Each structure stands twice: as C-alpha cells, then as structure tokens.
Amino acid sequence: MIEGASVLIVEDQWLIAYDTAARLQDAGYQVVGPVPSVAAALRLVESHKIDAALLDIQLNGETSLPVATALQARGIPFAFLSGFGPADVPEAFRDCTFVPKPATDAAILAAVAELVSSRTVSR
Amino acid sequence: MGNKLTAQPKKFPIVGIGASAGGIPAMEGLFKGMPDQLGMAFVIITHLSPKRESLLHEVVGRYTTMPVDVVEDGTPVRPNHVYVMPQNAILTIKNGVLRLHPLSGPTPERKPVDIFLSALAEDQGEYAVGVILSGGDSDGTLGAKAIQERGGLTVAQVADGYGPRNPEMPQSAISSGLVDIAAPAEQIAAKLEAFSRSFDALDGLTEEDQEQTAAIDQVREQIYAILHSHSGHDFSGYKPKTFLRRIKRRMQIAQLHSIGAYIEWLQKDPFEVTNLFRDLLINVTNFFRDPDAFDLLEREVIPKLFEGKTANDTLRVWIPGCATGEEVYSIGILLREHMEQLSVVPRVQIFATDIDEPALAVARAGRYPEPLLKGLSPERRRRFFNGDGETYVISSEIRGMCIFSPHSVIRDPPFSRMDMVSCRNLLIYFGTNAQNRVIPVFHYALKPGGYLFLGTSESIGQHENLFATLDKKNRLFRAREHASPFMRLPALVGDSRSGALRSDGANLKKGPSGYALRQAVEAQVLERFAPPHVLVNAHGDVVYYSARTGKYLEAPQGTPSQQLLTMARRGLRLDLRAALREAATTRRTVVRDNLAVEDDDQRIQPTRLIIEPFAERDGGEPLYLVLFEPSGPLQFHYHQDDSHDRTADLEREVRDTRERLQSTIEEYETALEEVRSSNEELVSVNEEAQSSNEELEASKEEMQSLNEELNTINAELTGKIEELDHANSDLRNLFESTEIATIFLDRNLVVRTFTPAASSFFNLRPTDVGRPLTDLSSQLDYPELKTHIAKVFETGDTLNHHLARDAAGRFHMVHINPYRDKTNSIQGVVVTLFDVTVLAQAEEHQQVLISELNHRVKNMLAVVVSIAKATQEKSGFKDEFAQALIGRLQAMSRAYGLLSRKSWKEALVEELLHLELEPFGSERFHLVGEETKLDPQQALSLSMVMHELATNAAKYGALSKPGGKVQVKWAIKDQLLNIAWRERGGLPVEERPGTGFGLNLVQGEIEYRLGGHVEVTFRRQGLSIDISFPVLRKEEL
C-alpha cells in the first residue's frame, strides 16, 4: 500500500460519503471528494491525481457510468460501491469490482487496498 | 340339481331384486316389513343412468338395519346383507361371488335384470329368488324364466300403497306366466320369509328313503290322478324325482308344509292344478341340446333335405312344442349353414308351434341372456347373433325363416307335407295314449320319406309300421312310404277338443287278484265259444280281432290294411257295409241273416252277421262289435248243368250284376277316400294359413310397437336437434364475442373453424374453412408452428409457447391443445393465440420496480448504518445514543411513509414539516409558506434536516425553555426554495461551541446532497437558519 494514496469517492448520499471518507482518512488515505454528481466527479478526475476510486452507481437521477468510463480510459482502478450488482450494469463494466451496499468498513478498506495495489503493479 | 339340500348346510337363498322407474318406494315397502335375520341375501339391480352417481345404497340403508354395500367385483354374497349394483356396470354371479362387468360401448337395449337373474338361476338353482318391482320395461321376464326353469322362486309386485308407479316390468313377467307370487311390495317380505323357512320343512321330500318311498308313490299316484282328470295329461311317465321337486316348489310357494295338505288344496283349487301343470311343463331348453343328435342331424339329414330341391321348391320343417325357440333357432342355424354351401337355394319355412303363448312371445323376440347360449359355439354366436356380451338377439336371416304360432299337436289339425318334424322333449309330457295319437299325426304331417327327430328319452312306441329307424340312439326316424294309415285323423275342424286324450283309466286302478282270475276264466270261455268277431270304428278300421276270423276275412291285395270292408270275404262285403252304416247311424244292433260266405274251397257258409255298438266309454271314439255267426251247415256249390239253363243264365246275370255293383262300390270308396284326403289336407292347409295369419298379426303388433318407438325416438331426436341448434348458436356467438384468436385444425391441419379474432393472424376468410393451414400466409413469426402441432399429436399434451415481440410491439402467447373426440382419441388441434402485451409490459415494469426497490433498500440500510456510526461517535452514553438514533430513524421513516402514500412521486413542504415537527409539539411552531412540491430525495433530505433542527432546538434552543417558539417560513424565488428557521423566546442564545453532527448533517444534506446553501446565524432572540436549494430538477445541478 502506498502511503497517502488518493482515493476519489463519488456518492450522492452525504451520510454515506461522509462515513466512507472518514474511514479512508482514518486508514491513511487521502480522500478526493467526496462528490455527489457526475459533473463534479469528472471535474475532479480532470484536475486531481487519483490512484483509485469508489463509485456509487445511482446518483440522484443519473448514473456514475460516465465517470467509470473516464477512469477506465485513464487506467485508474475503481470499484462500484452500490446496491446494484454486475447484472445491472452494461456489459463493459461486468468485470469491475463490486462492493455491495451496505458494506462493512473492512470490506471497503480491503477493496480499496486491492485497487491501490493493482494500480502500483500496473505502474 | 339332484343334490340333497342337507348336504350343503351353508346354502341360503339369494334374492335378486330388479327395479327401475318408481323402484325406490317399492323397495321402501319391501324392506320396511322385513325382519333382520331372514337368512337371505339381497342383490338390488336397477336401471341406472351411467352418468349419474347413484345414492341408492344410502336410500336403501334408511329402510333396513342390514348392512347395505355397493357391489365391487369379487364381493362374496353373505346372508343378511343387501348389495346394490353400482352404475356403469353389469352384474352377474358365479359360485356365490358377485362379478362386475364394465359396460362396453353404447347398448341401447340393456337388460341388467334379465342378465343378473339368469346368472343367479344358473349359479344358485332352487335357491335363486327373483323379485321384480316397479319399472317401465319388460326387463326381468327372461330372468324369471331362467329362475323358474332351475326351480327357484319368482315374485312380482302388484298395486298397493307403494306403487308400482310403473307397472310394465312386473306386469310383463306376470302376464308371461313366469311369476309364482304376485303380491304388494310390503307383503313380499313375509312371502320370502315363509319361503326361506320351508326349505327345512320340506327336506325329506326328495330323500331316497325306503320307508317313505311307498307313501310317496301313493301320493304321486294321487297327484297324477288329479292332474289327469283336470288336464287330460298323464304325468306318470315323468321322472319321480323331478316330479317331486316341482311339487316341493309349489308347496313352498303355497307355504304348505305337509304333502297331505297340498293334495287337499289341489283337490279344492283347480287354479293350483293349473299352476302345477304349468310348472311340470317347464322345459329346460338350450341351443343344440344333445350335441350328438344335432351333429347327426347336420351330417346325415340336412343335406338330404335339400336334395333335389330347386329354387322354386320349399323346404318345410315343423317343430311342435317349440317353447322359447332355442330348438327352432338351432335347426334354423343348421339349415342356414347348409344353404350357404348350395348354389340353388330353396325357400325354407320352419313352423314352430306351442300351446304356451308367453313362451312364443319370447321365441318371437329371439333375445336371450348370455347364460342361455351355452350350447352355441363362438363362431355361431358371432355369425348368427347380435349381442352386447350380456344379451344376444338372433339374426334376421334365421328369424325370417321361422313362423311361430300357437297350436296344440293333440287338439289341432296337423300341418302337412313337411320334410322334417322335430319334436324334442315334448312327448315325455304326454301319456302313452296321447303319444300313440301323436306319432301317427307326425306321420301324416310328413311327406313320404320325411324325417322325424325326437328327444333322447322319447320313442315312436308301437308305430314301427309308420317309421323306419335311422338312428336308434339319437331318435332319428324316417316316415315309411307305403304305410297305410292305421288311424284316420279325427274330424278335427269342429270343437272336438281334448276329450280324445283321456286314457281308459283301466291302468290306473287294478282290481283285486280274484277279479283277475274271473277275467281269465271268462276270456277262455269266450275264446272257446264266442263267435269270431272284430271291433271296428265307424269307418270300418279294425281295432281288435278275435280268434278264428279267417273264415270271414282275408288279407286283401295291395298295402296292408286294417279296413274291415276290404278284408271281408265275398258275399259279406255288401251287407257288412250296409249293416255297419246302419249301426253307426242308428246306434242299434243290426242283424243280417243267411249271408252266403264263400270260402277258399268254394264252399258256402250261411252266416248271420251281427253288428252291435260297443259299450260307450266316456268320450272315446264310437266303436262297433262285428260278430260272425254260422247259421247252418256248409253247402257246396251246385254244379248240375241240367236243363235249367235259364236259371243258370239268370244266376250268372245276377253274379255279373253283383260284380259290377262291387266294382262300382269300390270306385265310390276310392273317390270317398280321395275326398277325405283332400279334406284333411285342406284342414292342414287351413291350419297353416291360420299360423301364418297369427304370425302376421304378431309381426303387425311388433311393427306397431316399433313404429311407436320410432315416433318417440323421432320426437326425442327433434328435441335434441333443437338443443343442438341452440348449442351451435351459443357457440357461434361465443366465437364472435371472444377476442381470443382460436383455430380448430383436423389431423391434416385443415382449418375446421376459427374465431373472427384469428382471421387477422392467418389472413383467414370464411371460405378458407376446409383448406390446410399451411396454404395460408401468416402474419405470425412462428416457423415452429408445424413441429409444435406434430408434437401435440405425438404427446397428447397441451403446448404453450411465447412468441417474440412482433412488428407492432405486441407480445403473444400460443396454446396448442389436442382436440379429442368422444373416444378420447386426438382428432386435431386447437390453436389459441392470446395477446399478452399488457402482461409482458407489466412484467417488465415489475422487474424495474423490484430492481429499484432493491437498490433503495440497500442504500437505505447503508444510510442507516452511517447514521448509526455518526451518532455513536457523538454520543457519550448508550441512552443518549439510542434516543438520538431512534429519533433520526423515525424521522426518516416518517418521510418514507409520507412519500409512499404519494406513490414516491412528490411531497408537500407543509405536510412534511407538520409531520416532522409534530413530535416536538405542534403549538410551538408557526409554519408559513405557499404550496410547494418536493421530489422524493428533497423530501427525504429536508425531513432529516428538520428533525436535526428541532432536536437541536429542544436540547439547546428555543424549545428547551417554556414559551420558546419556532417560526418556519418558506417561499420560492428564482427557482430556489428558501426556508427560514427562526427560534424565538427562551434565553438569549450564545454561539454554541463548535458545530455538532446535527449541523453537519444539515449542511451535508442541503449543500452536498441537494446542491443548496445553509446559513446559520446566532442572534439574540435565538438561532436563525436560512436554507435554500433548487427545486427545479436535477439536470440543473
């Protein structure tokens, strides 16, 4: 694990976003966001160095899939943190990591650690 | 039949009860009066509708305490039980076990009662009892016959309080003379009880007990005498055992327990004599009874009967005593089988006669229950009978050859010019005298060389001169060609009825032995001293010769003859004839003196001729005693040829004249003979004509009843057609009104019919009915249709198939059902197309909803977890944590409640605020604002925010002090909803240290979640919070 790796959190529920961010910070990650919308997320992807991302799929009337596409394009590893499963997303995202909601802190941390280490390997 | 009753103590009477329409009240009457332990079993046979389930056993169970069971195949019959036939089956019995036979195919003329009763008779013999109750049919009549033949008891219901409502069934049995007891329903039980008791009482009667034999012989003699005096029939030749068994049966029926009482009753009641007579005459007849005899008939006789016959000839057979027709049809079958081998087929007529008219009716109908067909080979049964396995009807090719007619072989003139007479097991019922009369009658009826076929225990007796024996064992005889008839047929045209039958009675009472000695002495004296004499009838036929008549009589030339006039010697004949006639007309003694009788030696014996009417015997034919008494010494002819030429001439002339006279007389006699023959023949022909007429009458009646039946059937048919029309019209309307596309296809996929809705799928027009479906273009994208239909034909199961969405976006489902006919075989398919678009859409929508719900719930739980965690971090104590957490969760749940009431579409700000602030005391809030709608997310966030603010105020702000109030105002401006939260009253508020989780949450929900803005101001009067967020939809975010 890279010390202080930056993790983008895209989540429209403030309570969940706040909670998740707090856990990651406690674990030593640098949190980018959290942001509740696609537009905000894409802005952060453009402007920040991001090592990994946690995406909620359903965002207040839109989906985070454009964000996922942008992350894939940049080779940034990410996981969906969502009530939806692989069956609910288009073909292209079926193989992505899914952390089902409601998730335990341990599950979230394990997933992020996995993402960050894969990022390190690919470098 | 000869088994001793005591040898099988377990036997008990089985009562077959036949009933049809109106049978229930009759059975009520029958069973209500019945004691429980009668020791009999009851089997109820009814005409049940095969379609309706019968509750008969329950009904019967109400009237009796005996157990009532519905019969199953293999049920053994036990005494004091009642068995009820189930519907849809035919019941028989074998070795005391009931057997069920399933119905096979439609049999309109079913006779279940006949079938069961005949099986019962066969199985149980004299323990069989047939009870025929109310019903509208003639079912049961043949069954009753079978029971009577085997010595059982038959009972029929007559009118009383319990019906019979439909008397035809019992009436038919009664009128055919086959019923022993006719009683009202509630009295039948008592009769049955007496019947069952009498079995024990009468056991001794048929025992071969030496002591009793003598007594019983005497009893028999007495009964013979009664029968003889009553009917003229002599039953002494009847087998004693059989005879006694019949007597016993009558006693059971009459419920008399001593034979003496029975004889007394016989003497008093002529009706009982008639009944006994009838019982004795009952004949067990079977098809091809005595197979050997019939084989011989088939091999030896029948081919000869047809020999030399051309198509214009008629083969005539007479069967007297035909009873119920089995013998008739047996011979008919043999004749028909032979006819099939012939190229030239003559006409065949079988005259079948009997005195028993009910039996004739049965014979005419020609319908026999299966047990009566025992003697028939399966081939013949198939070939000559039409049947349903239980009853069989003789085929019309045999029936058409037969003419049935009531006729007494003793009283009525015989038929004539027959090729064969078959009279089996009739003569055994006749006394010797009657037999001696009947055999010549048969000879008369036959053509010369014709065949006579008798029963195995019968013979032609002393009439070897009339018949030559062909086969002694099988009683086959042939009429001699040149036999001169011993007997003239009596003048039978008039009313000279059965008197001729009486025997002289001398045999019956034998005198004491002294009397016999005197007779012998007298006979010897007579023989020594009496003049030669003969006994003749009025026609001159000799019935008795004395000794030494040779002087007066000589055997004439030609066929042997008993005719006295042809035998008389010259010189006697003229005077004999005249004297006999005089004696016959005057009934006085006639004497002729000085007759010159010329003997062989040309000597003349002067003779006195005396003819006396013979002492009259009651009813007998008048006879005459002819005595020849010599009245002088023998004289020789004169042979002096002297001068008395003239005298000689005169004498010669006289002689010539006498000769001429003699020849004239002979000519006259011949003519007379011919006239008589013609007369007899005419009488026979007349008889035959009467028979034919009788037959025609019967046929006509049959025709009438058939016509009646046809009328009824026609009316019924008309009704059915109307029903069918209705049903058709209903069906057509159903087709037209239904929106479901349905197509009926036959085995070759030809369209049989279709509903209007189907026309759009297959471009069907009404003219397409009859065309194969494969010829028609289809709008459906359903290439597997043919294979699917084939699969349904193969498996017989319904097939369902969902079609893909069609061009118009509609979904359809296809049902392919097999089309089964009455026999349940697949004759086609029914293809049904349902529009299931709405269903499919609903399914899709439901899928979306479920997925949405799933997501929401998971999200919710995630939120709840987060709230719990956050709350936990900020709370020092458990209670505080629990209270805060529960408060937050309740706030959320209230918002959810509100939203779900509005179907998750929207929520009003005012409602939301009321709901969330109410727990803190509605009176302390002042809510002002216009009607504003929120989307679900906004509503949820706002509700949590309001809960946090109110909780905060209650803890630290205006609501923590009495009199503190909160004003909430809201308004929309520039597509932003502005909400102002103002706390007033209470203590001056200072800025609270830090911002707690509550305020964080407010900011998070409003700013982060809703993209709005929160401003918190601590004023003197109290906390003041301004919230604003966009109420126009997310795309603006």
Strands, helices and their partners?
The complex is a heterodimer of chains A (about 120) and B (about 1050).
Chain A: E1 6-10, H1 14-26, E2 30-35, H2 38-47, E3 52-55, E4 58-59, E5 62-63, H3 65-74, E6 78-82, E7 97-100, H4 105-122
Parallel strand pairs in A: 1-2, 1-3, 3-6, 6-7
Antiparallel strand pairs in A: 4-5
Helix pairs in contact in A: 2-3
Chain B: E1 14-19, H1 23-32, E2 41-46, H2 56-61, E3 68-70, E4 82-84, E5 89-94, E6 97-102, H3 112-124, E7 128-132, H4 141-149, E8 153-157, H5 168-175, E9 181-183, H6 185-201, H7 210-231, H8 240-254, H9 259-268, H10 270-281, H11 291-306, E10 314-320, H12 326-339, E11 347-354, H13 357-365, E12 367-369, H14 378-384, E13 385-387, E14 391-394, H15 396-399, E15 402-406, E16 418-423, H16 432-445, E17 446-454, E18 467-471, E19 476-479, H17 513-529, E20 533-537, E21 542-545, H18 564-567, H19 573-586, E22 590-598, E23 603-613, E24 623-630, E25 635-636, H20 645-737, E26 741-746, E27 751-754, H21 759-762, H22 785-795, E28 799-802, E29 812-820, E30 826-835, H23 837-874, H24 878-901, E31 907-908, H25 909-917, E32 925-929, E33 933-934, H26 936-955, E34 965-973, E35 976-984, H27 997-1009, E36 1013-1018, E37 1023-1030
Parallel strand pairs in B: 1-2, 1-7, 2-4, 3-4, 7-8, 8-9, 10-11, 10-16, 11-15, 16-17, 32-34
Antiparallel strand pairs in B: 5-6, 12-14, 13-14, 17-19, 18-19, 20-21, 20-24, 22-23, 23-24, 23-25, 26-27, 26-30, 28-29, 29-30, 31-33, 34-35, 35-37, 36-37
Helix pairs in contact in B: 1-6, 3-4, 7-9, 7-10, 8-10, 9-10, 11-12, 23-24, 24-25, 24-26, 25-26, 26-27
